[in-house]
Amino acid sequence: MDRWYLCKKFFTFLEENNFDWVTKAKRNTTLFRKVIEPGTRRERFVPLTPIMLIREVFKDLTRKATSGLVSISVPGIYMKRPYTAVNRKGKQVTKHRYVPIAAVVAMRLKEDEQLNSADVDTEGEESPATYKGAYLLISNRHDAPKEALQTYVKRWRIEVFFRTAKQELAFEKCHSESQAHHHAHFELLFTAETLLAVALFELNKEKTSDDEGYTHGEMVRGLFHTRCQVRVNNHRGIQRISIDCDTQVQQFARLIELFWPEHYLMLLWATPKPDIYQLLSRTA
Predict the structure, then answer these.
(1) Residue 284 pLDDT > 80, yes or no?
(2) What is this structure's pTM?
(3) Distance of alpha carbon 62 from alpha carbon 59, whole angstroms
(4) 92-107 and 70-86: which strand pairing?
(5) How far apart are CA 265 and CA 182, in angstroms?
């Protein structure tokens, strides 16, 4: 999830409902490190900021690789989390406990390489904690920091989908106030994007350079903005539906061949007798 959702109450809600979470730490995120006092052997939690944690491991991080995603997991990091308890007088009070978290310092995340100037946050408490291009990822899965990093990396695909859905698939053009209509609108968008992904793969899998192939926007204009004509006729007593498309759709012939069914069945309501269905076999 985005760092804007970073809220301790929300974390508690997720974990109570058996959900895991991973996000970037903000500048004002308060973390703690558990240390053992030498003399008394007592546990003590020392506060530290995300930027302090990144600086501690930054040199080791840059030595690991000169390109690509690199990361270092820092053990023994905690967050203070609120919980509700009942005191001696029977009243509910809010207390805090230290909860272990996964703390992963990562650099060269794909989302940071592809951000433009309009996406960069201004300096402030809500901006992510960063030091020389490195960020701190935190998660409740302190037992699986590598898996937490791999899960967060997948988040960028979701962001790319929403960007293309808003710009090219009319994501925000649903004007209905019905929740069911909104769900149907989103499901159609997911279906359209899946078809586009398959078509894009079919057209671009044999390209030899970046100049060849098609972009996502060209696919939308070519696949969804084509002109077609639907005709119904009879052939030897069998009713047929014919669809004539313009030449623009020729580039998607492979996609149509893969997914267009040769035969399909339709259930049509018989108007003279409402209690009778008429089963018709049609050929595409």
Answers:
(1) no
(2) 0.66
(3) 5
(4) antiparallel
(5) 28
